[in-house]
Automatic annotation (TrEMBL):
Residues 33-490 form the Aldehyde dehydrogenase domain. Pfam families: Aldedh. This is Aldehyde dehydrogenase domain-containing protein. CDD domains: ALDH_F8_HMSADH. InterPro entries: Ald_DH/histidinol_DH, Ald_DH_C, Ald_DH_CS_CYS, Ald_DH_CS_GLU, Ald_DH_N, Aldehyde_DH_dom. SUPFAM superfamilies: ALDH-like. Coiled coil: none annotated. The keyword NAD applies.
Length: 494
């Protein structure tokens, strides 16, 4: 991914800059990474290959801004974030185009999911924190009488590190609670998708957010992300990304006693019971497996179906998946765009081969798609694999692309064991028309979220996160309030 000066379409790639103390700065080492447009393969952006020197400058700016920002009234912090949200709404089309060109997803997905949700994140935390920042109180009424209350105080400079699948959506999910609770931050977006984070910095300036409150260093994980995690002036790290990276970050942050929030990988199952509304289950599982090219941590990658309805399910499901159109992200008819990178496309396709090697059958898809006019783009057909057992690698490992495995089960206990039989515990969905069965099965599933007869219905006031190797901690409100503040008890003897 080393930057060169030429592009495949002859136009000069746009060069991004870090955002430090309210100004756009070139990387200290003067080096850049080439970022291709996944739908064409063309070299579209040069992003700073930041190093520890850039991180030091960004952390220093955030540290200098902290004393004033942490004492800025909540109403003012809220006003500024809502101003950024307004600007994002006004620029929604430009952001959706940029997100799609950078990530490969259809513009219609960016325009209906990523950008509106980024705006909602800003509004949600800007208003939630206005109304519920206080901690609880208590009175001792024994021989010693005292009144105690909890103060919630901002922690300092936060490292906010995000992945490439929902770039602005996931970054604003961290920025908004971080800033509303009075912290300042240094963000490190994914090196694969830096563009909308860069554009967001312009909006923060336009909104009048003081310099240093939010800083952005671009670049890869080792040279930019890791120095940020290691920095002695960064007491809290909020990370969303892969489980292996999360373990590495934890190994650095834990001995330094940093506050750590980890949102990691998943291997989410859908359980289709015999009494499910099959048509609704089929329609939703098409979406849950292939939305955003299957590149959402919550996507369904294992579908476990009661044997009595398995044949009907697979027939309807395959027919529906075959209707999905893979095509240029700019085409409103495209259901799936390109995968984020060539390297990721190869990884996804390698799992199709692994599935075949392990005795699985590819019912549909399983190959790269050559889109006319976009021959160098990273497109993969939506893929259904059947015939795999619970221990198969495609049933165990996160593929994070448009591949889902469908298998029958004989009784519900078997389905639960299968569902729980991975190192992950992010999300699951459950399909049944029996409300009592739904509650009983939901209670047995090891996951941060269980959706019943739906998928990815998000209530931002609910705690979001994973169990087991899917993460540590929860995001949302009030979970993010707890993460981004320290509790202090003040006890007054009466
Ligand atoms: P990744 O772990 O490779 O990278 C995530 C971020 O971490 C990037 O910004 C990267 O540059 C940075 N990074 C990498 N190594 C680092 C290091 N040593 N120190 C500090 N930072 C480092 O993940 P990815 O490939 O960008 O994203 C895909 C993964 O993210 C999948 O596993 C997916 O399940 C997960 N994800 C989880 C959630 C969730 O909410 N649980 C949401 C979206 C994605």
């Amino acid at each position: 991914m080393d930057s060169t000066t030429t592009t495949t379409n002859g136009t000069a790639p746009r060069r991004l800059a870090n955002f430090i103390n309210g100004a756009f700065e070139p990387p200290a080492a003067g080096q850049y990474l080439a970022s291709p447009n996944p739908s064409t393969g063309a070299h579209a952006l040069d992003i700073p290959r930041s190093t520890a020197a850039d991180v030091d400058a960004a952390v220093a700016a955030a540290k200098a801004a902290f004393p004033t920002w942490s004492k800025t009234p909540r109403a003012e912090r809220s006003r500024l974030l809502l101003r950024v949200a307004d600007l994002l709404r006004d620029n929604a089309d430009r952001f959706a185009q940029a997100e799609s060109a950078d990530q490969g997803k259809p513009v219609k997905v960016a325009a209906t999911l990523d950008i509106p949700r980024a705006e909602q994140n800003l509004r949600f935390f800007a208003t939630a924190a206005q109304h519920s920042m206080g901690g609880h109180t208590s009175e001792l009424d024994g021989p010693v009488q005292a009144f105690s209350y909890v103060r919630r105080e901002p922690v300092g400079v936060a490292a906010l590190i995000s992945p490439w699948n929902l770039p602005l959506y996931l970054l604003t999910w961290k920025i908004a609670p971080c800033l509303m609770t009075g912290n300042t931050c240094v963000c490190k977006p994914s090196e694969f998708t830096s563009h909308t984070a860069y554009l967001l910095c312009e909006l923060f300036n336009q909104a009048g957010v003081p310099p240093g409150v939010i800083n952005m260093v671009f670049g890869d994980g080792i040279n930019a992300g890791q120095p940020l995690v290691q920095h002695k002036d960064v007491p809290l790290v909020s990370f969303t990304g892969g489980t292996v990276t999360g373990a590495r970050i934890a190994s650095i942050a834990a001995p330094m006693f940093k506050k750590l929030s980890l949102e990691l990988g998943g291997k989410n199952a859908a359980i289709i019971c015999a009494d499910a509304d099959l048509d609704r289950a089929v329609a939703t599982c098409v979406r849950s497996a292939f939305y955003n090219q299957g590149e959402i941590c919550l996507c369904t990658s294992r579908i476990l179906v009661a044997r009595s309805v398995y044949d009907e399910f697979i027939l309807k499901y395959t027919a529906a998946v075959k209707q999905l159109r893979v095509g240029p992200p700019t085409d409103p008819e495209s259901d799936l765009g390109a995968l984020v990178s060539e390297q990721h496309m190869k990884k996804v396709l390698s799992y199709v081969q692994i599935a075949k090697d392990e005795g699985g059958a590819v019912v549909t898809g399983g190959h790269r798609v050559h889109v006319p006019g976009h021959e160098h783009g990273f497109y993969v057909a939506p893929t259904i694999v059947t015939g795999l057992g619970p221990q198969a690698r495609c049933m165990q490992e996160e593929i994070f692309g448009p591949v889902t495995c469908v298998s029958p089960f004989d009784d519900e206990q078997e389905a639960i064991e299968w569902c729980n039989n991975t190192v992950y515990g992010l999300a699951a969905s459950l399909w049944t028309e029996n409300v009592s069965r739904a509650h009983k099965l939901a209670a047995q599933i090891h996951a941060g979220t269980v959706w019943v007869n739906c998928w990815m219905v998000r209530d931002l006031t609910m705690p979001f996160g994973g169990s087991k190797q899917s993460g540590v901690g929860r995001e949302g409100w009030p979970s993010s309030l707890e993460f981004f503040t320290e509790e202090k008890v003040v006890c007054v003897k009466l």
